[in-house]
UniProtKB/TrEMBL annotation:
The keyword Cell inner membrane does not apply. Residues 1-236 form the Methyl-accepting transducer domain. Residues 40-92 have a biased composition (Low complexity). This is Methyl-accepting transducer domain-containing protein. The lineage of its organism: Bacteria, Bacillati, Bacillota, Bacilli, Lactobacillales. InterPro entries: MCPsignal_dom (IPR004089). Residues 40-125 are annotated as: Disordered. It comes from Weissella confusa (Lactobacillus confusus). Keywords: Transducer. Residues 93-114 have a biased composition (Polar residues).
């Protein structure tokens, strides 16, 4: 009985020992499972962080690519604007050269008119026309200065646009390089994420973000440079317009100078013809003197009629020139206002200079309009002068005895009366019958 109880106790002890061993093994397995679970959780967290870093890198690369595209577009715009500014500057330079050539012609015409006026200083028609030609030449020269200044401004603005284009191009290159770096970093971050290396993936994502920031800054620089190029191009175009208007003013002034010079030449020719007529009236016997006086006076009357017609034509030409120059003056004022408006929107010194030059051009155009108006008034007055009657419409008897007495009176008339007045007196004396003394 005691033996059986001992055997049972031993068996129970063995079972308990086995159960304890099983419990110990189970506890060990539980610990290992817990460790595995922790490792799995850590791995999952690492993988999540790596994937997040990879996603961030991909987003940064996408942003860098967009900034790169914008920078390239801005650089292209700046290049086109700079090219247009260069063409405008070239055109302004050609226009200024044309204005200079026109002014030289006007000056030459005015010089010739001055030479004619110097021969007849007492003839107001000659001196007035020569003065008008000289004033027109001065206006043309002033327009040349304006056109030259505008061309200089246009060249300066074209240079500014070119520099801005270079900056935009460099910024586009920087943005492109930054985009390449961001793309490479994004690819690396994705690889690290797949490998589960969250630290490396995070570092690559940081590089991609930095590269994207660089691309964004480069895009902003390119955009600013394109804006500068656009502003410079607008100022360049305005300066070219000012140069063109100044050239038009110079051309109109040259036409006015030519018309005035032609009037000077015709007035001088008329004065010369009058002088010759007076000389012919003083010479020869009565018959030749009467015949010459009749023919010369008839020619002078015909010439006066022709001159009157020409004066009317010149008056119309001067009026048209005054209207054209007035239109140019209005255009110059409008362009000056446009450039001033542009100058008010920026602090760029070159734009302000362009505005000043535009204002000068408008002032020069106003001066040209004033001169043109004066020339038109002179031409209108000249056109209204009455022409002398033709001798062929008159009937008279020439007294030889009176004709023989003319040379004796001429010296007294010559130093007291203008030549045109002397000619009129001679004609009246030739045509009117003498007053004979009453018979005793």
């Amino acid at each position: 009985m005691a033996t059986s109880a001992a055997s049972v106790a031993e068996s129970a002890n063995s079972v308990a020992s086995s159960a304890a061993s099983v419990a110990s093994s189970a506890a060990s397995l539980a610990n290992e499972a817990n460790s595995v679970a922790k490792s799995a959780a850590t791995a999952a967290s690492t993988a999540t962080a790596a994937q997040s870093a990879a996603d961030e890198a991909a987003s940064a690369a996408s942003q860098a690519d967009a900034n790169n595209s914008n920078a390239a577009s801005q650089a292209s715009t700046a290049s086109q604007v700079a090219s247009g500014a260069s063409q405008a500057a070239s055109q302004a330079d050609k226009t200024a050269s044309q204005a200079s050539s026109t002014a030289e012609k006007a000056q030459s015409v005015a010089t010739n008119a001055g030479s004619d006026a110097a021969k007849y200083p007492n003839n107001s028609a000659v001196t007035s026309a020569a003065s008008t030609a000289s004033s027109a030449a001065s206006v043309a020269q002033s327009a040349v200065s304006t056109a030259s200044s505008a061309a200089s401004v246009a060249a300066s603005q074209a240079s500014t646009a070119s520099s801005a284009n270079a900056v935009a191009s460099s910024a586009a290159t920087v943005a492109s390089n930054a985009n390449d770096i961001a793309s490479s970093a994004a690819v690396a971050a994705s690889s690290y994420a797949q490998a589960g290396d969250s630290s490396a993936a995070s570092s690559a994502a940081s590089q991609a973000t930095s590269a994207a920031a660089v691309a964004s800054s480069a895009q902003a620089v390119a955009s600013s440079a394109a804006s500068v190029a656009q502003s410079a191009s607008e100022a360049d175009s305005s300066a070219a317009s000012v140069a063109s208007s100044a050239t038009s003013t110079a051309s109109a002034a040259n036409e006015m100078a030519s018309s005035a010079a032609a009037a000077t030449s015709r007035a001088a020719a008329a004065q010369s013809a009058a002088d010759k007529e007076a000389a012919m009236n003083q010479a020869g016997d009565a018959a030749k003197t009467a015949s010459s006086a009749t023919a010369t006076t008839s020619s002078a009357a015909t010439q006066a009629t022709t001159d009157a017609s020409a004066a009317s034509s010149y008056a119309k030409t001067a009026s048209s020139a005054a209207t054209a120059i007035g239109s140019v003056a209005n255009q110059s004022r409008s362009q000056a206002s446009a450039v001033a408006n542009l100058a008010s929107k920026t602090t760029d010194a070159t734009v302000a200079s362009a505005a000043s030059q535009a204002a000068s051009a408008a002032s020069a155009a106003d001066s040209a309009a004033s001169v043109a108006s004066s020339a038109s008034a002179v031409a209108q007055s000249a056109a209204k002068l009455p022409a002398p009657p033709l001798l062929k419409q008159m009937r008279c008897t020439v007294r030889p005895k009176l004709l023989n007495q003319l040379p004796r009176f001429m010296p007294h008339w010559q130093h007291r009366l203008p030549k045109l007045v002397i000619n009129q007196l001679l004609i009246h004396m030739l045509l009117r019958p003498p007053v004979l003394p009453a018979k005793q």
